[in-house]
Amino acid sequence: MAKETTAEPLDVIPTEGENCHTAHHLCMPEDSRKRAARRLAIARGHLESIRRSLEDPNVYCVDVLRQIKAVQGALDGAASVVLRGHLEAHVATAATRGDEKELVEELMDALKYI
Amino acid sequence: MAKETTAEPLDVIPTEGENCHTAHHLCMPEDSRKRAARRLAIARGHLESIRRSLEDPNVYCVDVLRQIKAVQGALDGAASVVLRGHLEAHVATAATRGDEKELVEELMDALKYI
Amino acid sequence: MAKETTAEPLDVIPTEGENCHTAHHLCMPEDSRKRAARRLAIARGHLESIRRSLEDPNVYCVDVLRQIKAVQGALDGAASVVLRGHLEAHVATAATRGDEKELVEELMDALKYI
Amino acid sequence: MAKETTAEPLDVIPTEGENCHTAHHLCMPEDSRKRAARRLAIARGHLESIRRSLEDPNVYCVDVLRQIKAVQGALDGAASVVLRGHLEAHVATAATRGDEKELVEELMDALKYI
């Protein structure tokens, strides 16, 4: 899922580091990756506990609605971590690489679904 | 998490059926429960695959954002199933039980977080 | 825009009152109508002041974004007033009129766009 | 509401043009300003017609809900125009001015309310 902004395929997948945030290859900052992964793991556990609660015939609709909304809040938080990392590492530096048109277009498209 | 609308505790948890949707005990319709559980199981699997994709240093921010948004869409779908069951089984029949004030208050409060 | 739940046209538009919330004609509760109208008038004024601020070449994007979001919050509030009135006056009493299927279907459809 | 990123006040408000997008002063791109203003004018007209419809005692709740949602969609469109202009003119060029930290912080804060 790594980002290629030119047509030529890269022979070598860059290791994370100085050549990671170039016009050829944009990698998610490590800190964002780890923080987002942690939040997703928590959300998955919460989702599993809601799913299990639905095995009880006495579960109440509004309690389930509230739990689902709590998970959506957690996912908003995870998306926020990813978006901030993207803005800092890739969008704010776009003019120095020359891919600002493409990056803004792509981000606007992704945010539409928020 | 079953709903009690009176202060007196129930001695016996009603089995699902005719005495389930009374002012004393409101149970989630079985069909909603099963359909919501199925959707949550799928969302949990999707969430786990996103979390795993974050172990790859070459993962791209915008791909992750899009995946998180897809899971949020799935959770909206699950919440929709639950809300519809609640409206049909509990809210639309509230005037026949006399608990409309409480049910509407509670639902408005839960929807605030949507 | 009054709601007709039968195919036969009404000869007489009911005056607001006892025959307003029947299967033939569902009117918005007067209190909801007045409160929602007040909120919409305030939102419209706010929107006009944002529009005017855009005539100034020195206006800053993020300030405009924040102002638009404030108006959306006000509209959420107005929608909330209308939804609460609908749940209380129409949905919670649906089983006594026998139009619960139609009302829930219609509401779920309208909430999709929220 | 123009953006100042330094503490010293500007003696002269820059005219729109080359000195507009500097670390000292960020102006909204003219095209975004005009397009957003047009959309807000349409939304305001729509809002006024909903407000007027609420003077009719026969107005139906769900019709009002749908109309309010349509205006919120229009405001989402206007916010989108503003956000795109901001990303292109200010965020994508931040690293060339050195204010990326501040711009990303501010944008994340503004998007929280979306």
From TrEMBL, chains A, B, C, D:
Has UniProt tagged this entry with the keyword Metal-binding? Answer: yes
Q: Which Pfam families match?
A: Trns_repr_metal (PF02583)
Question: Cytoplasm as a keyword?
Answer: yes
- Which chain regions cross the lipid bilayer? none
Fetch the CDD domains from UniProt.
TthCsoR-like_DUF156 (cd10151)
Q: Which UniProt keywords apply?
A: Cytoplasm, Metal-binding
Where can this protein be found? Answer: Cytoplasm
Q: Which PANTHER family match?
A: COPPER-SENSING TRANSCRIPTIONAL REPRESSOR CSOR (PTHR33677:SF4), TRANSCRIPTIONAL REPRESSOR FRMR-RELATED (PTHR33677)
The UniProt subunit note reads as follows:
Homodimer.
Give the protein's recorded name.
Copper-sensing transcriptional repressor CsoR
